[in-house]
Amino acid sequence: MSSAFAPTPFEVSDDEFDLDMDFAADAGGSPVGSFPEGTAGDINPREPLQFTSPAEAAATVPAVAGFNPVGELVAGASAAFSAPVPSGPAGGPGIGEVSVPRIAIHVFAERQDTLASAERAGQDRRLSRATTQIRIGGVAAAVEAYQHEPTPPLIIVECLTDPDTLLREVDLLAEVCDAGTKVVVIGATNDILLFRELMRRGVSEYLVAPVQPLQLISAIGGLFADPAQPFVGRSIAFVGARGGTGSSTVAHNTAWAMSERIGANTVIVDFDLPFGTAGLDFNQDPLNGVADALSQPDRLDSVLLDRMMVRCTDKLSLFAAPATLDTDWDITPEAFEEVTTRIRSTAPFVVLDLPHTWNAWMRRSLIAADEVVVVATPDLASLRNAKNMIDLIRSGRPNDAPPRLVLNQVGVPGRPEIPAKDFGAALGVHPSLIIPFEPKVFGAAANNGQMILDAGGKSKAGEAFQTLAQIVSRRELPLVAGPKGKAGAARTGSLFGKMFKKR
Prior knowledge:
Helices cover 35% and strands 14% of the residues. The protein has 503 residues and is α/β, with parallel strands linked by helices.
């Protein structure tokens, strides 16, 4: 059995990497390392471990203040703002940034609700690379099983007996465990002395029943966190319900607002290889950044990634698509997954601009993203496609929030439209944002390689993108917006002249 040390206390993050706050509250149960005060009879002469309760941790983190919605643009945006929650167990990664390697996990549970939680955790996107095997029975069943078979990298056992019996059974389990195996114990006693003794005997983590799926996921992620990559950026995928919804425009403008108005380092990844518009929108020469990365995902490191990216501003970088039809792109879903994972290690926020297509890598990208934004227009085709897409994402992400819905191009003169209220009711998702139809602002920005906040910062659409940036990043605008980045100077020339200049 592993001889891992006891977990370190919770640490309040600097909010550079936020958790998946929509579901942190759903974890429920007893948090790891949270024990009642005043435990009598401390038999350990060592300095007692210092645990921070969830209430104390929340008190040390400034709550995110609400903001005034922009007219009728914001629908329920205030619900996206809540106080940040502490990071995962032992100061490990937040629940939204958990990444578990390809390992085998065996679970021995006594309670039906523990079996259900373990099954739901095993289906979670964060454990997609791991193989989970669930069995009925506690420590005794585990001891019997491993008499005749090797132990996996991680064993989770449930024992609801008294502390003395639990310790004896853990000792029996240790006799049949191979070296390097990590053990997580689920018990019924919330006792600091029991916790210390289990840690002394080599148990990697102790959870108090009942446990929720996100508790298990967070505990597993904390045990297998890569120390060489202390954080993973939050991925936000934008996808259109159909062609022409303006999904790419929404993604690019939101990313720009996150970087320039909120001040967060952001990377845009344009996965629309033949028709990507990120280069045009940011007035950049077409590069093969994404295509080169996808062709050699195993070679990617920080140096190579930096060479492939185009720096649009001090805080915004771009992985542009080649936007050419000279190549028939045949890239495996594993390559897309690997490239996305590598890029997430470079910035707090990674915006994925996904094309309107459907294949294996699109499905995996949507399910694996920390946040999904579906962009639709108020028409029947968008409604049908958005419903199919949202239902599939919901089924593939049972422990995550449903995708966010953005209604774009609302208020086109003379066009019959489905009201936003009815649109959201049919999908079971309230629109997070409604972006009005402003053809002059959008047309001028597109033709000049500018963002909406550059071309028409005082417009309703510009304020809408600013609001959406706050929602998906879960950060507020600074009191005084900082100066524009390098992009302001870069976009002074004519985009058409740049596209068709003499070679």
